[in-house]
Each structure stands twice: as structure tokens, then as C-alpha cells.
Amino acid sequence: MVQPLSGQAIYVILLRELKRFWRAKARIIASVAQSFFFLALFGLGLGGFIGGFRGTTYLSYLSPGIIGMSLLFGSVFTGVSVIFDRQFGFLKEMLVAPVSRTSIILGKILGGAVTASIQGILLLAVAGLMGAFTPTVTFVIGVIASIGVMILITAGFVGLGVAIGSSLTDFHAFQLLATFVMWPIFMLSGVFFPIDVAPPLLQTAILMDPLFYGVELLRWCLLGAGTPLLGPFGWLIALGVLGGFTAAMVGIGTFLFSRAQV
Amino acid sequence: MKKISIIEVNGLTKIFDNEVRAVDGVSFTVEEGEILGFLGPNGAGKTTTLNMLSTLLKPTSGTAIVNGYDILKDPDAVRRSIGFVFQDPTLDTELTGRENLDFHGRIYGLKQDVRQQRIKEMLEVVQLTDRADALVKTYSGGMKRRLEIARGLLHHPKVLFLDEPTLGLDPQTRRAIWEHIERLNQEKNITIILTTHYTDEADYLCGRIQIIDFGKIVALDTAENLKARLQGDIVGLTFKEPADLLRIRPLLEKIEWIRRIDAVAGENNHAAMGRMMQMMSGIPEGLGMGGMVSGPSPSSNNSFGTSRIPKQVKESMALGMTGARDQVNLPEATRLHLLVDNGGHRIPELVNMVSDTGVVLESVELHKPTLDDVFLAFTGRNIRDERGSMAETMRQRRTIREARG
User: Fold this and answer.
1) Residue by residue, what is the 3-state secondary structure of B376-388?
2) Which residue of A has its CA nearest to B103?
């Protein structure tokens, strides 16, 4: 079936996500605070014990990974919220409107990507204030590039969330989702240590984690270098893999959402 | 005045995965500007029919034309023509009332100035202007319902579907919502299809009522005509002693305008009256069971031709005049139910006749046919009998709970 896109519909649903996000200030603060504790505890605490870390501080190394964590949790949550939209009925209001389901879900994905990225940017500022980055001209360009990377990461994971949310019909599976999907993705994304020091089996697992490539890209943007394992053009590889992942997830999420019954 | 049909439903059928025939070959037309009510118990197929007409659900077979558009071929145009107020709440409670309306206006492509104007207008219609900027989660059940109705009308639909519009609301709010619905229908000429399992709601609002049971239409007519099918009123005479009853009964049996006499023991019994009406109506018992009863089912063709009913009525009346009269002869009975036309006019005559014999009446009662009786007659069941799936019942309870909260 042909599903014409409506820019207006995408925009309206994006607007709704932004309004709801803005209303839930407590959740934003909680989320940023949680990431801040990670940065303070590991970055400053553990970092103080480790000392210098491959020509930079451990806090600097850790920051892109913690931003990645925040992006992951924020975006998957928004994606899975299609369950809540169904449970609380608002989904019907959207589905009975004269717009295609594709427009609806693209609006949702865009909304989730923008709101999760705003959290990521807030965290970037917090890390900056803690002294994680050296402010240079290239760094400013890097920050701008990192915002684009954040949108790419979050769009993919909202898509994943939508795919999961469209397949599940109740939210009791939420705990399982956190334990078996989000937590492994986070832990294997190379947040705490460089991948090249890991044993081969673990290395393979990390290389299969899409968020790893996202965090790699953020490191390239914010620190100017990634893991030596991927070589001098590691960012290009990371961009390719992440782009593929995001495209696939947006496609799968859209497909599953379009098929779902009211 | 020429009537234009705005909805034409043709053999609409929905069979769910579990092989339940939720809607079974339904055909009917809806005229522009009318209020049509689907009356039926939970699980009868009312909501499923609406979901198909609004393109939310794909029919297994059959189709319908809504406002000139086919629900299968042109679902977007159908959705542009309709408004839908769902049975369960579908508002975003994290947004304000105004924002909910604004969302709706935008997604239906209303321009900024038109949108603002209509939002203002609709808020006034449902009297929510002063609470428009409060979050919906702070609204009462009645306010939420009113907001949903306002939202369903914002884009000026040609047809408005209302699924159980007053489920769980208090009497005042129900009355206010009925008045809104009526006004919208009259002032804006919006065609309204509503589902309900409240007979008083159907009676008050609907020009025509469609009784739907087990996925089939068992009757479609005005409330008045449906009641008229029950062929008369019931006059209840209560005597002090069973002996009095036995004395009077032979005299009543001689009166030709009394079409049937039942003796009833015990307290006033509406069910007995309803059953009496049903027996006399010529509507075969269990008609609504559709395919579940054996033999030719009159409901399958959905036509209630005028030629068929009177013949059955005649047969049934003949039965009433002979056999059935002697069937009910309880020795302890102190009460007689008489089936007559124009019961109100016959009461003085009956009372005079009884007092001429010296027998003292304890009470006299007149029972006019109600839609409840009509429903009982057509389906063989009381409309308040719980059926429907567990999930549906739970969902309705939630709606009721939230409406009251």
C-alpha cells in the first residue's frame, strides 16, 4: 500500500514529543544527574587512581561513552512509549487521522531523536564544565558534528524501541527489555576501556554492538581520535556501520508499527 | 425533502483470528443528517462495525461507502470525512485541553487562523473555555468526555461516530452531552452514528435504532415503530384474593379487545410483562441468535419487509387467543396482565367493570412498551445481561472508573 508522507503530520507529532519532554523536567534532571554521577564517580574517582590515560584524562575518555548511554536509554524509552500511546488510547487518535502510519511513526522517531539528543547535549555541557574537553577551534567544529552523530544514534535506537514496542502488547516485558537489550548494549559499547585491550571473544561482542560505533564517532568528534583498532579512518567505518544500523532500525520500526493492530 | 444516503454498508463482515464472527454480513444505509443508534449488549459487534467504517480495521469481506468514498479504496478520504469519539479515553493527559485540540487541528491540516477560531468555538460549545489551559490529567471524567467530543468535531466531519458516548457518566453530564449531540446534529447537519447499550440514550437521541446482536442486525427502525411492533400495552390488575381473580377472569375473557390474559403470582413482575409482549409481537424468540438457531433465520437477509411481520403477528395472536390463555392458570395468582391497545383509555372501563361485580382491586398498573422490552423481544435477552469478552469488560470498567475519577 502506498503511504504518502505528510510533513505537517511529522511536524505535529514531533511537536507533541517536544512538549511532553519539556513538561517532564523532573525526568530530564534525573537522567542528566544519573549520568553526572557516572562521570563524577568513574571519571574523577577511578580516573584519579588511573591517572593519565593514553595522552588524555580518564574523564575525557569516559565522557563520550556516558553521553552514548544517556542517548541509548532516552531514545529506546521514547520508542517503546508507543506501548503507552496504545495503552492510554492516544494511538487511536493518531491512527484515525487522515495521515499515513509512516508519517506518524517518522514523527515519533524524529521526536524521540531530538529529545534524547537534547539530553545528550546537556550532558556534553556538564562534562565540559567538569573539564573533560580542551576548548579549541577544532573542538567547536567537533561539537557541531557530534550533534549530527547524536541524532543518527538516537534515531536508530528509537527505531529499535518502536520495533520492540509494536511487537509487545503489554509493558510487563519492560524489565526484560532493560536487562536483556539495553544493559548489554550499554556495557558492550566500549564506554569504560579501550576495546583493543579486551580478550578476543569480548572484542567480537563489542564489535557487534551498534552503540560502540556511535560512541566511537563521538570520540572522534570530541577527542579527535578513536580506537586504534579501527585504524586511522575508523570514523568512516563507524559512520558506515551506524548509518546502516539506523536506516535498518527506522525501516523495521516503521514496518512493524504499520502492521500493528489497534 | 430528498434524503441522501451518506453511508452505504454492504455485506460487511469481520471474522477475527479466533474465528469469532464479530460482524456478520451487515448491510444498511444511513441518511445524511440523521442520528442512528446501534443498540446491543457488550460484544454484539457495535464497536467492530465502527472500527471498520472508520478504516481502523480491515473487513474480512464486504465494504462500505462513507461520504462517497470506499473504505477499502480510499481510506484517507474516509478518515477526512469522519470524526470518531472512542469509547475508551484517547486524550494525551500530559497536554492541556487546548493542546489536544491543537494537535488534532494540525494533524487534520487546518490552517492557523481557522484552527484558532474553531478551537475557541468548540471549547465554548462544550463549556471548557475556562479550563482549556489546564493539563487534561486534572480534568474530571465528564470534562474529558466533553473535550473528546469537541475534538471529534473540530475538523467539521460530515459523519461523527460516537462509541458509548456517556459510558460511566453521571446523569447530569449524560443529559448535557445528549443536548450537545442533538444541537450539533441540528445546527451543523452532522450525521451521527452512536453505539450504546443504554436504551434510554437510544430512545432520547436516535432517529432510528439498529438492534445488533451476535454481529447481525436484528431490527432497524425508529424507536416508535419498534415499540409499535410489540402490539400494545399491558394493563396489570392486582386483586386482594386469588378467588377474586378467578371470579373476574371469565368476564374479561369475553371482552374482544383484550388480546391476551396472563395470571401472574407474586410481586409486580416486569419480566413477565416483557415476555408477554414478546410472545404477542410476532418476533420469533431468539431471532438475534442469528446462525445459532436452526432453521431459516430471518435476520440473515436484514430486510424487515412489511409483508412478513403481520402474518406472523396474526399467527401468534391466534395462538394467544386460544391455547396460551389457558396455559397460565396459577391457583395462587392475584394478578392479571392484560394485553390491550391504548391501555390508558381502557383502564376506566376495566375498573368500572370490576367494581360493578363488587370485587375490590388492590392496584392498577399500565406498562407501555419500552426499548428494553423491544430488545428483549428481538434478542430473547435482557440488554443488561453481561456477555462480551473479559478484556472488553475490563476495558469498559476502566473507562467507567476514569470517567468517575
Assistant:
1) HHHHCCCCCCCCC
2) A12
